[in-house]
Amino acid sequence: AAAWANLHGAVALLVPILSTAAVAAERFRRRGAAWGPWAAPLCLSFAAVLATPHGTALFPQMWRTVTYPGKARIRDWAPPWIELPGLYGALLVLGLWAAWRLREKRPACAAWTALLAAASLTMTRNVPLYLLAAGAAAARAWDPSLLKEHERRALAACLLAVAAGAGLQARANAFLEGKRGIGTIEPLAGAAAFIKEADLPGRMFNEYESGGYLIWALAPGRKVFLDGRNAEFDPPVLHRGLSWYRPEVWRALDNAWGFDYALIARHVTGAYTAKVLEDDPAWAPVYWDDEAMVYLRRTPAHRPLLERYGYALVKPGRASQQYLEPILEKGGGPALLKELDRSVAECRRGPINALLLRAYVLARLGRAAQAGESAEDAVRRAPGRAQPLMTLGWVRLAAGDLEGARLAYEEAAARVRRDERPALGADVLNNLGRVYEKQGDRGRAAEAYRRALAWNPGHGEAFQNLRRLE
Fold first, then answer.
1. For a Cys staple, 98 with which of 138, 197, 270, 291, CB 3.0–4.6 Å?
2. Contact indicator for 49, 5 with CB cutoff of 8 Å
3. Considering only 53-67, 119-133, 377-391, which range has the smallest mean pLDDT?
4. Residue/partner pairs of 10-16 with CB below 8 Å, 24 or more apart
């Protein structure tokens, strides 16, 4: 209890839960028995809960957090309906079944499990506590020799659902880990290290999700704008902070707080959240990698930093590279390439996107061999991703290497994840169809275009290509 009290405020639940367990034990197992055995654990647990620098302030703080009106916008305070079809739903059934089986033999365990099950249904952040209780209760209730036939079948089905849910959740976690990271926002380490090394001055803007990590990474010298300690922020500030990427919201925040620099994480879905900064001439990117970007306000005081670190041409927050075309058409290729070379050299958390942009620029400048080397370097650094292979296929196609382009596109199509199919996957298949056409294989080309349309029915180029072939 003392360790818990110094780690997380939910320790305020400990004494009520122990009291519930005590009542359950006295009511269901030893009717009329003395309360003596429970007195010492309850008193000592209450004293241990107070063994923090905050003392009794823990309880009003916990109440302010639970009743905080701004939490409606935060997913982990919402009921976990989205989790029910997976591992949580299966363990919910299993745990409640175990609580019912244990209600007489182990009433404290049953009460604990039922109480945490009810708490988990009220908000997602209570689910992990319930899962701990559900596993323990199921282990205690497991005795096949005492189960009836229909109970054995139901329990077997539930256990299979748990196993399937765990497998699916493991795949989802692996997917998220590959995209951005899960649990902590450790991928922000490169951007945080840059902020400290460059000694960026003034006020920092950061997103709600990254505040906790940045407190750990940048304290004590720098303060965050938002973090997960909800009750410390006025609800309007939190609501605006969660919608910061809307131009009118960003202007209001910036006018009120006067930010000097901003750290923006790459969105896990690829959403272009940094648009308000990249469209504003008052801000310039000064660092970027595959996980995050840092922007600095253009002021006279920041001029030395901007001359050393600033990017004039590269827009790292954009998901599309079409913004490069006007620069290339105006002869800005060499300057753009110089910025990208610096990006690759300075990246602390993966230069895949910089390598792919460099490959694209080199190919557009007619330097096919160097473009291929840059794309192949990206493929080596990210062997499980489809985007580097697609860029490699495009570079080979631009150089006239049809067979090499075909091999790269086919491998990219095999590695496209389900969530990438409507955008990246459809583009890969459309490009693969073009290669098949150039090789004279109209049948395989048509099939590639059909697959592209199956993944993205609105893919206009694939539709036109298929219509032309048919």
1. 138
2. yes
3. 53-67
4. 10/62, 10/129, 11/49, 11/58, 12/49, 12/58, 12/59, 12/62, 13/119, 14/45, 14/49, 15/42, 15/45, 15/46, 15/49
